[in-house]
Amino acid sequence: MSSKVTRDMLFETTQNVLTYSNETKKRKFVETVELQIVLKNFDPSRDKRFSGTVRLRHIPKPKFTVCVLGDERHCDEARANNIPAMTIDDLKKLNKDKKLVRKLSHQYDAFLASDVVIRQIPRILGKL
What are the alphabetically sorted keywords of the record (predicted)? Predict the structure, then answer.
């Protein structure tokens, strides 16, 4: 039951789904439309034909905040790009205080850690 999907058919179908969504009862949350594509006879580890990035028209989360947990080199690089950064010494100042650790985790949407620091984070911060 598989067939080739043309670009026009894809756009028409997604437009139909969006118009149906707008005509029905309004929800009090943002609804998402998901598209799943299966490629037959394609081995992603062997074939690298489809590598690349896609820039979305609408940003999924406009105020996405990231904090870098790293050594001095990574923290200096992050601060040069106006990204908040914390070193191991800054993390040790939290003293495994659950309230401070939880406050830190709620303050940012994501954390990026250096390979040296990532092994030490559970020991330094403790359980949440």
Answer: Ribonucleoprotein, Ribosomal protein
